[in-house]
Amino acid sequence: MAEEKKEFTPSPAESFEIDYLNARGVDATDAMIKLGFVFSQSGVEEPGKRVFFEGRASDGTKIKMVVEKGENYKTPAQLEAERVERELEK
Fold first, then answer.
1. Structural domain contains residue 31
2. Does some domain include residue 6?
3. Cα–Cα–Cα angle for 4, 76, 67, nearest 5°?
4. In the chain, how many domains are there?
5. pLDDT for residue 63
6. Of 51, 75, 80, 82, whose CB count within 10 A is highest?
7. Domain presence at residue 33
């Protein structure tokens, strides 16, 4: 009997930090690479408000990208809950 493979589907991020450092972090590091930088680190600059990504070019030039949470920001988990609620109302 063949085993059924289940496809892994990650849960939507439940916080600003998780959303940007994990889910969207690849996009930030890709942007740095396109600009000629090598990603060096990322982290929380101010809990619940700002995260950062840092990189360095071969000549020593540094880059720091800061993402600041917008007033109307909603986590992917909140957006998914709203979508499900709208579907149930139909």
1. yes
2. no
3. 130
4. 1
5. 97
6. 51
7. yes
